[in-house]
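Intended use. Records like the one below are meant for learning the mapping from a protein sequence to its folded structure. Do not use them to infer anything beyond what is encoded.
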Amino acid sequence: MKKHSLLALCLVLALAFAACGGTGAGSSPASQPQQADAPSAAASEPSEPAAQEETAYEITYSSARAYTNSIGTTWMQAIAEIENTGSADLYLSSGAYDVEDAGGGLVKSGSMVSTFPDVIAPGEKGYLYEETTLDEPVEGELTLLPRPSVDKAKVECIRYALSDLELSTGDFGDLKARGRVENTSSEASSMTYIVLVLKNAEGQPIGLMFTILSEELAAGDKIGFEMSAFALPDDVTEETIASYEAFAYPMQMQF
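Structure written out for the chain above:
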């Protein structure tokens, strides 16, 4: 009897402990913070697309044209318009492109192509541009496939003031431009870029002129400049240029 009573008592105690253990596992306070953390993690996910949006851009226009000048040389003009659609300044490094003919064949491949200006603010547009020769004439329409190099800017977006801008035509039919540039910043510029983006009546870029001033432009100084364009297509003239966008800025390198 004592043996059976002892066994019955042990069985009752074992069942009691098992019941307490099961209840404790289901209501353990340690499990509550894990459930609270789940919504917090989900709420932080939208911040990742926001960070990507800071360096967003869009190619809003691209064109490649082949043309032959008066001495029989075949030229090609490549131009791509890059708009900063994000919320941070963007830095445009030298870009690249491919040009295809109407059948999809490769006509030209360019690398280390200049971009203007170096830094563009949100809402601004920059331009990848090149005028280069082709080995032989090309028939039909061309398609430009631009590959700009775009990064978040680590340098300041600086613009100088331009005034007295005038376009004219030279004796050989070449476009000329002149004006004045003023360093409105607090630092001297050892190399200054001046760029004119030429546009048609639809607001599309049809050519680009630029010059580089290698003399120092001290803070507050205003000096004159002149530039010429010899390799533009023949139909880019004073009459076909409806407007232009002008930039003046110091050379800025970003590594």
